[in-house]
Design brief:
The complex is a heterodimer of chains A (302) and B (93). Chain A has 302 residues and is mainly alpha-helical. Helix content of chain A is 78%, strand content 0%. Chain B has a domain at 31-92. The chains are: A mainly alpha (302), B mainly alpha (93). The interface between A and B is medium-sized, with 39 and 31 residues.
Chain lengths: 302, 93
């Protein structure tokens, strides 16, 4: 009886999380934890606690979750819970932009995932590890990781995983574009865009649009690059994602320069410069951006 | 290094540019020969068009364009110096 109620709470929490209702997800995970603890089921309580920590990371409380997750990691022998705790610690470090520690814990969760027959967790672990490899410009390692994530997703229900799968496809597309496989990369990113548009997943699509803007610049399709970049910029602004906003301003400036519109290019770059008040941004630095093709120097996921 | 060279984040690129306060001259060679006002002003549309054209050239074409520009800069520098010399001679003489 307890197990049924517990499973229902977990399903409701996951549904709320997928719908973006983080507070409701947190309440359901915490209720599941209390229920399992009351029944003396430590493994189920730990699982719910791990998930609650993940929601709290998403809610901006990453730093506070690290010691809690470390305790969960050390205190359990349950392979799935250890793997999830390691994965969530990596996510917390990623959130705090401590990429070295994030990579260390992502590697640990990846090792643990080998012994677990749980495709959704395996897919998440591989995607996380590959995304970090991408951040460190380790493109081939990233490509392999994204393929492993997609393989793991094959066995999962299409609707539940559609958004995740599209995100991984987009990530893989960007990795390919960075390793001179532009056509293949653009194709994957377009597939991802179509899927995310169908799901109306605006919160996930803007990074994909940023990658498309980059790809279309390389492919000299400047109209498409401009359209994708402007849409990505608007959505990133809406979701308060500074990194994507900065990348888009940089890419849109490059589109303007390639169209011969230096005035507009300078306007985007001045807007970009406002993100760096600590740097004395003079016209010479803006000129460096206007006159030097930096598209293959910048890692948009860096 | 893996296929696909190492890249930096936009944040790190800005830090590098900020730390070194890189000047245009560092990217495009010595511009000391150009008149100071032209060298220090922001690029105009015409400058951008020239740079656009240069970016479309092959490495060999770029080298030739650079050689021609250097020749033109030296030539104008010499002409300017000659004009200034004649002017100062006529003023003193």
């Amino acid at each position: 009886m307890m197990v049924e109620r517990y499973d229902r709470l977990l399903r409701e929490a996951q549904g709320a999380f997928a719908a973006g209702d983080l507070q409701s997800a947190l309440r359901h995970f915490e209720a599941a934890q209390v229920l399992a603890s009351g029944d003396g089921d430590g493994d189920r309580a730990d699982r719910a606690a791990c998930n609650a920590c993940f929601v709290l990371i998403e809610l901006g409380q990453a730093e506070e979750q690290i010691p809690r997750l470390r305790r969960l990691f050390m205190g359990t022998l349950h392979p799935r819970n250890r793997c999830t705790a390691a994965y969530n610690i990596a996510a917390a470090y990623l959130n705090l932009e401590d990429f070295d520690n994030a990579m260390e814990w992502a590697d640990r969760s990846s090792e643990l995932a080998r012994d677990i027959d749980e495709p959704s967790l395996t897919a998440g672990v591989h995607n996380q590890q590959a995304s970090l490899a991408l951040r460190f410009s380790r493109f081939e390692e990233a490509e392999k990781g994204f393929h492993l994530a997609l393989d793991a997703m094959e066995s999962l229900g299409e609707t539940l995983q559609a958004a995740n799968r599209a995100t991984v496809l987009g990530n893989l597309g960007y990795a390919l574009m960075c390793t001179e496989r532009l056509e293949e990369g653009l194709n994957l990113c377009e597939q991802a865009r179509a899927a995310l548009d169908e799901l109306s997943a605006d919160n996930l699509i803007y990074e994909n649009l940023q990658d498309l803007c980059y790809g279309y610049i390389l492919d000299d399709q400047l109209e498409r690059a401009h359209a994708a970049g402007e849409r990505a910029l608007g959505l990133a602004e809406h979701y308060d994602d500074n990194q994507v906003m900065k990348n888009c301003l940089f890419l849109l400036a490059e589109v303007a320069v390639r169209r011969g519109d230096a005035f507009r290019g300078r306007r985007y770059l001045r807007e970009l410069a406002e993100f760096y008040p600590e740097i004395e941004m003079n016209e010479e630095i803006i000129d460096v951006f206007l006159t030097t093709d930096l598209t293959n120097v910048v890692n948009l996921r860096g | 290094m893996e296929k696909g060279e190492y890249r930096v984040s936009l944040d790190n690129l800005f830090k590098i540019l900020g730390v070194f306060n890189l000047k245009m001259a560092d990217f495009f060679g010595d511009t000391a020969a150009a008149p100071p006002a032209a060298a220090s002003r922001p690029l105009a549309k015409e400058d951008m068009q020239i740079l656009q054209m240069i970016r479309h050239l092959s490495p060999e074409g770029r080298r030739e364009a650079m050689e021609f520009l250097e020749f033109k800069v030296r030539r104008e520098q010499t002409d300017r110096r000659a004009v200034e010399n004649r002017r100062s001679e006529s003023e003193t003489g």
